[in-house]
Write a structure and sequence with these properties.
This protein is of the alpha+beta class. It contains 28 helices and 26 strands. It has six domains: 68 residues, Alpha-Beta Plaits, CATH 3.30.70; 117 residues; 91 residues, Calcium-transporting ATPase, cytoplasmic transduction domain A, CATH 2.70.150; 140 residues, no CATH class; 120 residues, 3-Layer(aba) Sandwich (Calcium-transporting ATPase, cytoplasmic domain N), CATH 3.40.1110; 101 residues, HAD superfamily/HAD-like (Rossmann fold), CATH 3.40.50.1000.
Amino acid sequence: MPTKNQNTITQTFPVLGMSCASCAVSAESIVKHQEGVVEASVNFATGNLTVEYLPNITDAEKLQKAVQSVGYDLLVEDENKQQETLEVLHAEKFQQLKTKTVWAIILSLPVVVIGMFFMTIPYANEIMWLFSTPVLLWLGKDFFINAWKQAKHRSANMDTLVALSTGIAYLFSVFNMLFADFWHQRGLHAHVYFEASAVIIAFILLGKLLEEKAKGNTSSAIKKLMGLQPKTVIVIQANGTEKQTAIEDVNVGDIILVKPGEKIAVDGIVTSGNSYVDESMLSGEPVPVLKKENEKVFAGTINQKGSFQFKAVKVGKETMLAQIIKTVQTAQGSKAPVQKLADKIAGIFVPVVMSIAILTFILWFVLGGNNGVVQGLLAAVTVLVIACPCALGLATPTAIMVGVGKAAEKGILIKDAESLELAKKVDAIILDKTGTITEGKPQVTNIQWLNNDDTTKNILLSIEKQSEHPLAEAIVKYFEGVQTTPLSQFNSITGKGAKANHNNEIYFVGNKKLLAENNITISDELQKHAGEWGKQSKTVIWFADSKQTLSVIAISDKIKGTSVQAIKEMQNMGIDLYMLTGDNEATAKAIAEQTGINHYKAEVLPQHKADFVKELQQQGKTVAMVGDGINDSTALATADVSIAMGKGSDIAMDVAKMTIISSDLSKIPQAIKLSKQTVATIKQNLFWAFIYNLIGIPLAAGILYPINGFLLNPMIAGAAMALSSVSVVSNSLRLKWKR
C-alpha cells in the first residue's frame, strides 16, 4: 500500500445507488483495495466517498469502474456540474418514491377492505392476489433487492425483515389459494395473508418517503457559496484597456477593476482608488470596511459605492471563499451518521425473529404429531407476520413528523431527524454575537445636543445623506421624516468623516480626529456623554460647525429584546454558553456583561470558530452552534447541532439543520424541550412496537398449545400487527398537544 508522504491528492465523489449502511461498507472496501489508494471512507449520511490516492497509479475513472463492479456508481463530473447533477438525481429519486408510495396505498386499500370485511365474496382471494402482486413485485422490489445485498454481506436490517415477512406471507397465501385442499384434508382452514404483505410495503414506503423529505439537501448550501463568485471580471490590460474575462482565466498578478455594487471575484490587494466593502459574509460584522491602497480584499465580498483596482493574489481554489466552501464540504462529509435506534434494534431483532420462526417449525415438526409439519409452517409464518416491523418502521418517522411539524408552528424549521434527536443532549451552546445576540444593524442609540438645541439637525441629516460612510445610514434612518436642506462644497474626508457648506458656514460630521485637526472645541457636557458611551463600546460620531461641537451621537448594534431572558433560560437548563465574535475585545466584553454570558472570545476568525467547536467536542460536550453569517457556516457544519438565525445569510440557513425563522434566541430552549419530548415519544413508540412482539411472538409460536390448546390465528396476528401501528401513530399524535 502506498504511504502518505508521496504526492497524493484527496478528492470527494458522490456515490450513487446506496440504500443502506452496509452498501457504504461495500463501496468503501472495494475502493480501499484498489492499487494506488492510500485512504478511503464512504459516509452513508452524506453519500460521499472521500479518497486519497496517487494520481500516477490510479485516477477517478479507474475508481469509478471499481465501484461499478459492486453495483454502485461514482459521480466524477467537475465540481460545479456535480452539484446540479446531484440535485436532479435527488429530485428524481424523491419523485419515484412518491409515485411508488401513492400507488402502494391505492392498491393496498381494496386488499385490506376485502381481507377484513368481505372474505366471503366470490373470487375474494383472486382479487386480493391481483391487487397485492404489483405492490410486492413492482413497488416493493427494492426491499427484496436490498435484503439480498444484505444477505450477501451476511447482515440483516429492516429491509430483510420486510422482505422476509411480506415474501413468506405472500408465497404462503398463493400456496393456500391454489392448493386449499392440502389444508382442508387435514381439517384446517386455508387462510391468505395478502393484505398483511401489501399493507406492510405501503407503510414502510410511506416511512421512507417521510425520511427522504426530511433529509436536508446539503448541496444547495455549496451551490449558493459558489454563487457568491461572479462569473466574469474586468481585467485591466498592459496597455490600459479593459477586458471582460471569465473567472477561470484570471491569473495571479492580474489587475482587476471593481465598480460600485459589484462582487469581488478573487483575493487581492488594492492598487488604486478606495471604497467601503461589505465583508459581512466573511466576518459577520455588519459595518462595511474602508479599503485603501495596499489593503486586502476577499472573493465573495461586495463593493459599496466607490470603485477601485486591485491586484489578484489568490485565485481559484486558493481564495478564502474557496477555502470556506471546502471546509463546509469536509465538515458535512466527516460526520458519522447517528445510528437510528430502530435500525440498531432491527439488526439484532431480525436474526432473532428468524431463529424463533425456524425453531418454532422444528419444535412442531418434532413434537407436533401427525400435523406437525403443517402446524409448524403455519406457526412459523404467524411468527414472521406478527413480528413484522411495521410499528418499528413507523416508530421514529411518525414522532419525527409530528415533532418537526410542531416546531414549524413555533417558528423553528428542522431539517433532519438527527438534530431533533441530538438537541436534547446539548450541554454547550456557542453563540455568534452580531445578528444572533444583537440585531446585526448599527442604530443610533443616544444623541445629545449642545444646550438641547437641535435646530441644526436638518444640516446633519443632509450631510449624512450624501456621505458614503456606512454609519451614515443609521443617522439618516434615525432622522426619518426630517426635511433636508441644500448644501454646497460637500467633501468626504477618507477615514475621518465629511464636511459641507451651508449659508457660508462649514459643518463637520466625523470622528474626534477630524475635530482636533480643525481646532473645534468640545463642551464638558458633550465630552462626558461621549466618555460614557465609549465605555459601553458604542461608536461615537461628532457634529460641529467651524467653532464648536453641536452634538454627539452614539451608534451601536443593539441587543435583541429577548436575548437576555433566553440566555438566562439556557443557563438554568445547565447549558454552558460561549459567545464568539469577530468584533473587538471592548465590544465583546460589554455585550457579555450586559447579557450575563461568562465565556466569550473576541476577534475570532471563521476557521477559529470551527476549531473552538472541535475543542469543546474533544472535552466530551455535545455542542450547538448558533449563527447567522457565512462566517459561521464552517462552525455550523462542524457542530453536533447547528442553528441558524432566519434573518441571516442563506448559506448559514442551508448549512444549519435548524433555522429560527424570527431570529429570536428564546426559541432555542423551546427546541431543546421539544427534542426531549420527541425522543421520549420515539422510545415509547419502540416500547409499544416491541411489547406486541414480546407477547405476540410466543403466542404465535404456540407456547400456550400444550397448556390449553390455544393457537394464534395468523389473521389475528395481522390485526395485532395493525393495532401496534395504530398505537404508535396515536402516541406520536399525543406529542402535538404537549406544552
